Every structure is written in structure tokens, then in C-alpha cells.
């Protein structure tokens, strides 16, 4: 006979059945967010809860919600709203584990899936529905889902729901529910704009904030490496080969860039698959199942696609593109180092993006350490002799440190220009003299050839006007951006036709 736990969840008021199920799942002691939120939720108070990613927020709202269900009633009583399909699938999996052996029925209602199949399953009268606001509202409009019996509504990752523009759909659903329903908002970050929604829809909400100043897990190590734009993929390849993480998530900013990024990463020998936000449900589910099963090492995704995912085997998070703000950094790195486990967050940036890392470190109060990689090892400081010559700016001209500046005392700009024209391609002495800043004999204007070569630039304002006469080919922003991203890409990938411009 299992010995009942009297020091953990039982003291919070959780039903003995669920205490036993948690013990079978090797969950014995509640986390801080669970300790603070569960007693308030059991009292049916409205709650706004903020805690780090990976601290157990799902159980904090799932256990009280399940405990309030009356299985004798054949109607939906709990609604969980999520921003993404993957998060919805994850919550449904947790609820299925908790309710195994009970009469509680759970159904997933997410966009991208067959609505006819979902309508058929709704005939079984589920007690808990988990889904995206758009699909649930669609089913309500079709009168296939009734809101009159909803007693508890949870909005998980509420800031993301708000950011994606789904808040008006959430409010439309709230209008159709009883006024006595309980509301629970959960997230790791709470934007100030959300306060107006809280004030309008909640009745004297309780705010639960677990160490809000510590927005990332203390078990996380934050690192960054600096490289050239064209070296991002190769830097990632070298780090993966060096550390060989069991599994890692690689973040990129734009969904449209995932295909090319996956192709580049595979080309350099990495085991990677993409998680596309706009792909079919089956494709996304197949990618997640393969990643959970360990069939590939790296999962490349955007912020939206990977929001809220709980993947215990992920030991590293790589930012191939820098996050757009500190909140997105918090959610990205929160995919590892969860529930007390160690994790490593690595940002691969260019020199121009250095200020972004500095800003994140300051606003989040964390130490993001710069590391250096050389000869298959990572160093805290740059190894002697490994640094490329630093670039310096003097007088508006950028050049490498140690490179001799032109000697303006010995050769004026027109004279130096004339010397270059006078030096024949095979005249090594003249070229050497020019590199040394010394004016060769007869290299001034008087030594210029009688007939200027075709490539010579006409002198004076008229010459500059002549240069401007031939207009260069102007490239579109899309072409310029494509060239920037394809630096260092294989030739076959560079030759791919450009995507059609959707804005036209």
C-alpha cells in the first residue's frame, strides 16, 4: 500500500487521488509557484501568476481546475487557452496523465486540425477543452461548443496570446461565459499592456509572483560568441561538434528563413529539422515526435513555434538570430534548465549586435559571458595570437590595425592617384613604392601618359558627373537581404530562385 504524502501536495489541499497520481509520476514536492498558486486557485480566486519558465506552472493551474470538475455533468467546465498548437498538445498530455483512471474527459481543439473530427469528438461532452482562441471561437459560432458551463478559464502564456492579437478573441469568449467563472492568467513575463485586460475582466485578482527579479533560472549558464555574419552557421557547427549536446533548440527570428537555415545546417553536417509555424498540424506533430524520440539533435524554430515547450532532454539553446527583446530571450532560454536542471544558453552574434547582449544582461540582471573558440576549445579570454587584426577608424577611413596609413606629407591625393595610373601592371618597383607611401620618380601629373587609359577617371567635377551618368543597377531590399543571409552558403543554395514577393 502506497504511503500517503503528508508534506507536499496533500498539505496544499490536493485530493488524495491526484496526490497518488503525482507520486506515480515521481512528482512529490511542489515547486514555489505551485505552493503559492494552488491554495488560492482552490478558493476559486482570480489569479495573475508570474514565474520563471520551467517552474511547474501547468500543474499550478491544472490540479485545482481538475479538482473542481463535476463528472456527473456532461458539459465543458474548464477551458485552457494557449497561443500555439505544441503548447496545447503538451498540456493535454499532462492532463491525460493526471486523469488516467477517472471519468474526466479532455479534448484538444487547435487550429490546423480537422474541424469535422473535432466536432465529432465534442459529441462525447468533454469536461476540459484545451485549444487556441481562434479555433474555439469558431466552434462556438457553429454552436458545437457551449460556454454556459465553463467554471474555470485559464490563459497560459498570456503575454503571447496578447502579442499575437488573440486577446479580442479571448474577450469574445469571456462574454459568453457565466460572470461567476474563475480566471487564471499564467506566464513568465507580463507586459504592462495586459493590466487593462486584468482590470476589466477579473474580480479582485490575487497576484502571485515567484522571485520576479530572477526572470531566468539560476541553473542556466549564459554565453555568447562573436563572429562575422557569414560565419554564424559554421560557428554553430563547431560548437555542436565540441559540446555534442544530447539535444538542443536553435532559434531563428523569421519563419520564412527556416527552410534556408535548415538547408545550410544540414549541408555542414548537422542533424536538424525545422518547426514551421505555418505548416500543417501533422508535419509539426511529426517534427515534435521525432525530436522527443531523439531522431535528430537540433530543432530549429521561431519564438512562436517553440513557446512553452517542456523538453527535459534539451541541454542547450542556441540563438542563431538574436531575440527581439529581453522577454523573448527569457522564453527562449527557458526551454532548458527547467525544474532545477542545468542548462546552457548560447547567443551567436556579430560585433554590431554586441549592444543587444549588453542590454539583455542589464535589464534581466544576469551575467552573459563572452567566450572564445579556437582549435576545438572554448576559452574565457581570447588566446594570444588568435585575434584577427582589430579594425580602427581614423579620419573617417576604416582599416586594419597595424596597416600603414597613407603618408600625406610625401604624396598628395592627386599625386598618389597619378602614380597609380603611371605604374604599369608589371612594374613591381612602382607598386612597392606606392605601398610604402613613397612617390616614384615621374609619377606626378606631368608623368601621366598622353592618352589616358579607358579605366582612368576624368579629373574634376565634370569627371564626377560623367561617372554619375551611368546609373548602377539598383537592387531591391529583398535581393539585398537575400545576399546578406546567403553569405557563405553553398553555391546550389545561392542559385535558388527568390521567393515571390507576397506584398505585391
From TrEMBL:
Residues annotated as domain Helicase C-terminal: 219-379
Motif (Q motif): 7-35
PROSITE patterns in alphabetical order: HELICASE_ATP_BIND_1 (PS51192), HELICASE_CTER (PS51194), Q_MOTIF (PS51195)
Single GO MF annotation: helicase activity
DEAD-box RNA helicase Q domain: residues covered: 7-35
Location of region: Disordered: 377-504
Organism whose genome encodes this protein: Paenibacillus filicis
PANTHER family to which the protein is assigned, alphabetical: ATP-DEPENDENT RNA HELICASE YFML-RELATED, DEAD-BOX ATP-DEPENDENT RNA HELICASE 47, MITOCHONDRIAL
Enzyme kind, highest EC tier: hydrolase
EC number per UniProt: 3.6.4.-
Keywords annotated in UniProt: ATP-binding, Helicase, Hydrolase, Nucleotide-binding
Domain Helicase ATP-binding positions: 38-208
Listed Basic and acidic residues bias regions: 464-504
Protein name: DEAD/DEAH box helicase
Pfam families for the chain: DEAD, Helicase_C
Biased composition annotated in UniProt, kind: Low complexity: 402-433, 440-450
Amino acid at each position: 500500500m502506497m504511503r500517503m504524502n503528508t508534506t507536499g501536495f496533500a498539505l496544499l489541499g490536493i485530493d488524495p487521488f491526484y496526490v497518488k497520481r503525482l507520486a506515480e509520476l515521481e512528482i512529490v514536492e511542489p515547486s514555489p509557484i505551485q505552493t503559492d498558486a494552488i491554495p488560492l486557485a482552490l478558493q476559486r480566486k482570480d489569479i495573475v501568476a508570474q514565474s520563471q519558465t520551467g517552474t511547474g506552472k501547468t500543474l499550478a493551474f491544472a490540479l485545482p481546475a481538475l479538482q473542481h470538475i463535476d463528472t456527473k455533468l456532461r458539459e465543458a467546465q474548464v477551458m485552457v487557452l494557449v497561443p500555439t498548437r505544441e503548447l496545447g498538445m503538451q498540456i493535454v498530455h499532462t492532463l491525460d496523465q493526471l486523469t488516467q483512471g477517472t471519468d474526466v474527459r479532455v479534448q484538444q481543439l487547435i487550429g490546423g486540425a480537422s474541424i469535422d473530427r473535432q466536432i465529432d469528438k465534442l459529441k462525447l461532452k468533454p469536461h476540459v477543452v484545451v485549444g487556441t482562441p481562434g479555433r474555439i471561437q469558431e466552434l462556438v459560432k457553429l454552436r458545437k461548443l457551449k460556454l454556459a458551463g465553463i467554471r474555470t478559464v485559464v490563459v497560459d502564456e498570456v503575454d503571447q496570446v496578447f502579442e499575437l492579437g488573440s486577446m479580442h478573441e479571448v474577450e469574445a469568449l469571456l462574454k459568453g461565459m457565466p460572470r461567476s467563472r474563475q480566471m487564471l492568467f499564467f506566464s513568465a513575463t507580463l507586459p504592462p499592456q495586459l493590466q487593462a485586460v486584468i482590470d476589466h475582466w477579473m474580480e479582485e485578482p490575487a497576484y502571485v509572483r515567484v522571485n520576479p527579479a530572477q526572470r531566468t533560472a539560476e541553473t542556466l549558464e549564459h554565453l555568447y560568441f562573436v563572429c562575422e555574419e557569414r560565419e554564424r552557421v559554421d560557428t554553430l557547427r563547431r560548437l555542436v561538434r565540441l559540446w555534442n549536446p544530447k539535444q538542443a533548440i536553435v532559434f531563428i527570428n523569421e519563419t520564412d528563413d527556416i527552410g534556408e537555415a535548415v538547408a545550410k545546417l544540414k549541408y555542414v553536417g548537422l542533424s536538424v529539422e525545422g518547426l514551421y509555424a505555418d505548416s500543417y498540424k501533422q508535419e509539426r506533430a511529426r517534427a515534435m515526435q521525432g525530436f522527443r524520440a531523439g531522431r535528430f539533435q537540433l530543432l530549429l524554430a521561431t519564438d512562436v513555434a517553440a513557446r512553452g515547450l517542456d523538453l527535459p532532454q534539451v541541454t542547450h539553446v542556441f540563438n542563431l538570430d538574436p531575440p527581439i527583446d529581453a522577454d523573448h530571450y527569457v522564453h527562449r532560454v527557458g526551454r532548458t534548465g527547467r525544474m532545477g536542471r542545468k542548462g546552457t544558453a548560447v547567443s551567436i552574434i556579430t560585433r554590431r549586435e554586441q549592444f543587444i547582449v549588453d542590454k539583455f544582461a542589464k535589464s534581466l540582471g544576469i551575467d552573459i559571458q563572452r567566450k572564445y573558440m579556437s582549435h576545438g576549445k572554448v576559452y574565457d579570454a581570447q588566446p594570444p595570437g588568435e585575434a584577427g587584426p582589430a579594425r580602427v577608424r581614423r579620419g573617417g577611413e576604416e582599416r586594419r590595425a597595424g596597416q600603414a596609413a597613407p603618408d600625406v606629407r610625401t604624396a598628395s591625393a592627386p599625386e598618389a592617384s597619378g602614380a597609380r595610373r603611371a605604374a604599369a601592371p608589371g612594374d613591381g618597383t612602382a607598386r612597392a613604392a606606392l605601398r610604402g607611401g613613397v612617390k616614384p620618380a615621374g609619377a606626378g601629373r606631368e608623368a601621366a601618359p598622353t592618352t589616358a587609359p579607358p579605366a582612368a577617371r576624368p579629373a574634376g567635377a565634370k569627371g564626377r558627373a560623367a561617372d554619375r551618368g551611368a546609373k548602377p543597377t539598383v537592387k531591391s531590399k529583398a535581393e539585398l537581404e537575400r545576399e546578406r543571409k546567403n553569405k557563405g552558403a553553398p553555391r546550389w543554395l545561392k542559385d535558388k530562385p527568390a521567393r515571390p514577393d507576397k506584398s505585391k
